[in-house]
Amino acid sequence: MKRIAPLLLSLSSLGTQAAPELAGLPPTEPLRAALEAQPLTQAARQQGLAELAAAGGLRHSPYEWTARAGTAQRSEAQGQRWAEQELGLERTLRWPGKASLDTTLASSAEALALAHWDRAWRDATLTLLQAWFDLVREERRAQGMDAQAALAAQQLEVVRLRVAAGDAPRLDWLQAQLEQERLAAEQASAALRARLARADWQRRYPALGTATVALPATAPAVGDADSAVPAANATTPELAQARHEAALAQLRARRISLDRHADPTLGLRLARERSGEERVLGLSISWPFGGPQRDARLRGAAAEAAAAAARLQDAEHQTAGVLQAERLQAQGLVHTHAQLARVAQQADETAALSRRAYAAGESPLNAVLQVQRQAREARTAAELALIDALQASARVQLRHPDLLPAPALGAAALP
Q1: What is the pTM of this model?
Q2: If you write DSSP's letter for every residue of 386-397 in order, what string do you get?
Q3: Which among 105, 126, 326, 347 is placed 20 to 30 Å from 290, CA to CA?
Q4: Whole-number pLDDT of residue 51
């Protein structure tokens, strides 16, 4: 846990103390509305409310009052007959220790229900994050191909003028036409993929169907966790769920252990016999004797508690590794984008120089086309690296406790 706390604090301290916005995504409030409208999110909410209701029931006794009423006809050999009536009321009572533990058990079950809701909300958020950046990738590819097609058209016009002036062979014109047709095919393919991605996004998130965001020039930097001050109760939805599951399993084992001593049933009996000549008032108590089944249930609960404790230990180790991997990946992708952006800038400058050199008759066309292909590949790599860095940084930012937190599920304790 000492490793997890500083990582979480570092991951949540990206910028000012106010809740940050996710770079490269729509504002958080529209995102929240889109997430809440998701059918799977609504299903998770209803499931959480069902778990809260079941947990709240643990605060009350599972036993209920039972009323009995009966009537009989008594007859003797001498021919006398009497009408008799009987009323009874009984209820099984929990031992005070069981009632107190049930209250604690209810609180633990409610905490687990809230942890399940937090986990479902984060999973929905990450699904939206992936879908959004998949859309952005396809649309940025299409925009890049549009720009390249425009450059190819300009280059084709330059070639046409030089061929018409007799300064370039007709072969240059054929090569330039072939390059433009190839880029047009790639442009059409990229545009189709972008339209399909947008249609899929609109189907899944209609509230954000037409959303567009101008990408920043760089992804936000991710801090170093080694310099962070440890947080007191650092956690993640996955780790919180494991903690609550382990605590609940321990409480259930304790509760089943108490059930080795059965609860007594008290009864009150009121009878009217011999047509009212005799009246009977009685009190009864019944007490089951525990058998092997209770011992078997206890062994099973103890094994489940041990399994939950082992899963918690694994979750603690996994959480530390996941947080560190997310941070390192984001840092690495931000650095990679910075390098590729410089390469793309240099490639663009080289391509511009080569186009001017061809226009002046100082460079062959095949060299110009080769340089332009390299510049296009470098620009595409830089664009995709930026999107990857933005997605990784956004995933890290989502660890911020005030950024897109799960909305309130419901009352933690139901009557």
Answers
A1: 0.81
A2: HHHHHHHHHHHH
A3: 105
A4: 94
Backbone angles phi, psi at 365, to 5 degrees: -65, -40
Q: Which residues contact 192 (CB under 8 A, 6 or more apart)?
A: none
- The pLDDT tens digits of the residues spanning 371-396 come to 888 999 999 999 999 999 999 999 98
Tell me the sheet residues that pair with 269: 88, 282
Q: What is the pLDDT of residue 169?
A: 86
Amino acid 290 reads: G
Q: Using CA atoms, how far apart are residues 58 and 53, in angstroms rounded to an integer?
A: 9
Domain extents in the chain:
4-397
Strands (E), 123-249: none
Q: How high does pLDDT run on average in the chain?
A: 85
Residues 6 or more apart in contact with residue 133 via CB below 8 angstroms: 24, 387, 390, 391, 394
Amino acid identity, residue 81? R
Q: Give every strand in the sheet of 66-75, ordered side by side.
A: 66-75, 81-92, 265-273, 278-286
Closest CA to 179 of 385, 392, 371: 371
Token pair recorded at residue 141: 């590819």
Q: Which residues pair with 73 in a beta bridge?
A: 83
Residue 216: pLDDT over 50: yes
Alpha helices (H) along 231-364: 237-258, 292-359
CATH architecture of the domain with range 4-397 = Up-down Bundle (1.20)
Beta-ladder partners of 67: 89
In 3D, which of 150, 144, 131, 147 has the Cα closest to residue 196?
131
CA gap 365, 272 in Å, rounded: 117
Nearest CA-CA partner of 374 in 339, 336, 346: 346
Q: What is the pLDDT of residue 360?
A: 84
What are the phi and psi torsion angles at 90 (to 5°)? -145, 155
- What angle in degrees, to the nearest 10, is found between the helix axes of 96-164 and 292-359? 20
How many Å separate Cα 75 from the centre of its chain? Answer: 74
Over residues 184-210, the mean pLDDT reads: 93
The pLDDT value recorded for residue 410 is 66
Stated as kind and residue range, the H or E segment containing 281 is: strand 278-286
- At residue 251, φ and ψ (nearest 5 deg) are -65, -40
Condensed to tens digits (0 to 9), the pLDDT of residues 143-163 reads 999 988 888 888 888 888 888
